[in-house]
Specification:
It is a single chain. Helices cover about 40% and strands about 20% of the residues. It has a single domain, classed as Rossmann fold (3-Layer(aba) Sandwich), CATH 3.40.50.720. The longest helix has 24 residues. It has about 300 residues and is α/β, with parallel strands linked by helices. Helix 1 crosses helix 5 and helix 6 packs parallel to helix 10.
Length: about 300
């Protein structure tokens, strides 16, 4: 297949590109810096209001302002605008060509469910309309659905916490290595997570699986509570996890942004499992051990190269 990929310079995109190449697919990268070629791609084009998608078999749309960083009014506006505007560009491009892609696989997030306690959340569950991230994701998914009228199948991957060499895990590891890692709040909140290799494969699986459409939970089948996540990461790093950050501290410092750490979302990948998707890393300890082992191996290789 020839697959268009927006947000092609991100760390999830890198994994998708590598996996797609391994499966014999070719990637056309859409990025805001097209002058910088992206390794492994057929070509690199500009991501703007005029996208060349005619003849592509599929489009994966990842582009959007990061939710990390202080949520000022301007930051929140960029988070929403980047997702709405970028998705409109993709939809408009698909609607305007004679040979459109057969499928659009668009990123979303499990934040669409809001804070849901102990509920097991499948794709059939309602979403929470009163939360900023939920409202962003609902608008994002609705914008993508506009292309269905053009005959293009749409899948919205509700991405959970992605564990990889970059992203949230990279931020957490130094803290845990210092022995300062610990639960957030009371530690009861559920964390839905997924290994970087699995979530990249989810996007490619969605392209190839014609029975998939609409929302799909991009989460491993075994969500864990925050305290269990903390213990597992500490064990993988060989570090204690006695520290804790009370909820009131997070709420005071981060206001509504504290939901990224305190909201409870126990997502179940019902649609993926129903289509026979095979997770390489269904349990948290094996996912963390793989990533930390890989990081140590890369660090050792780097030191060896420096000494050579």
């Amino acid at each position: 297949m020839i697959i268009g990929l927006t947000g092609a310079s991100g760390f999830l995109a890198r994994e998708i590109i590598d996996q797609a190449a391994g499966q014999g697919d070719k990637i056309v990268a859409f990025t805001r810096t097209p002058q910088r070629p992206i390794r492994g791609c057929l070509r690199t084009e500009s991501f703007d209001s005029v996208l060349h998608v005619n003849g592509l078999d599929a489009v994966i749309h990842l582009a959007g302002e990061s939710v990390f960083g202080l949520w000022t009014k301007a930051k929140k506006e960029r988070i929403l605008r980047s997702r709405m505007e970028g998705t409109r560009w993709v939809v408009k491009a698909i609607q305007g060509v004679p040979n459109p892609p057969k499928v659009l696989v668009c990123a979303s997030a499990i934040g669409i469910y809001g804070d849901r306690g102990d509920e097991e959340l499948t794709e059939r569950h309602t979403v929470n309309a009163g939360d900023f991230l939920s409202e962003v994701c609902q608008s994002w998914e609705a914008e993508a659905q506009e292309v269905v009228a053009a005959g293009t199948r749409v899948v919205s991957i509700r991405i959970s916490l992605v564990l990889g060499a970059k992203g949230a895990l990279a931020v957490m590891q130094p803290v845990f290595r210092l022995g300062l890692g610990g639960r957030l709040g009371n530690g009861d909140q559920w964390i839905s997570w997924i290994h970087i290799r699995d979530i990249a494969n989810v996007f490619l699986h969605a392209i190839r699986t014609e029975s998939l459409s609409g929302p799909v939970n991009g989460a491993a089948p075994n969500a864990v509570r925050n305290r269990e996540f903390t213990k597992s990461l500490g064990n993988a790093l060989g570090r204690p996890t006695f520290c804790a950050v009370p909820s009131f501290v997070l709420k005071t410092l981060l206001s509504e942004q504290c939901g990224l750490m305190l909201d409870s979302q126990r997502a179940v990948p019902e649609k993926l499992l129903a289509t026979g998707f095979q997770f390489q890393f269904p349990s948290l300890p094996e996912a963390l051990n793989d990533l930390i082992k890989t990081k140590k191996s890369l660090e050792s290789s780097g030191r060896a190269a420096d000494l050579a």
